[in-house]
Amino acid sequence: MKQPPYDVFPEIISNEIILREIQIEDVKDIVEISFYDSRPASTVEDAITMQEKINLDYLNGSSIHWGIVDKQTNSIVGTLGYYRGLDKGVGELGCVLKSNFRGKGFMTLAMTLAIEFGIKNIGLKEIIAITTTQNHSAVKLLERLNFVKTRKLEEDEIEYKYVNIA
Question: pTM of this prediction?
Fold first, then answer.
């Protein structure tokens, strides 16, 4: 199992998207989708502080977080990454997409690439995702990607587990 950080930040390239490291100059474009510990950013400064914490988590080996770049426009349309549990072979996969890019297949492809990376490169034995019961798009996405509902958490959150790991 090879946990972060890596000698070179892993970039994952497909025909349509690139998963790459988020640079500080990117942050102004993703304020609306910047979160840390479930708290959203309200300003560019908040988002920069959050990205600095995300980068520190990566350097400490507890997470890896990519920007999802649309190859046609070279702009970041969303983010995703693994959080918590990497040292135990578990990855909690979280994601967020800018609203004007939803429903276009970006997150399906990004999640597929991240799942493959988690299994092959990090050596994850379990991948989980947590969403709310009201987030119907996320529920459909997770189910389409072979996640199954494993348990109800506090309030209206549900945990899903990826089931294709051998």
Answer: 0.93
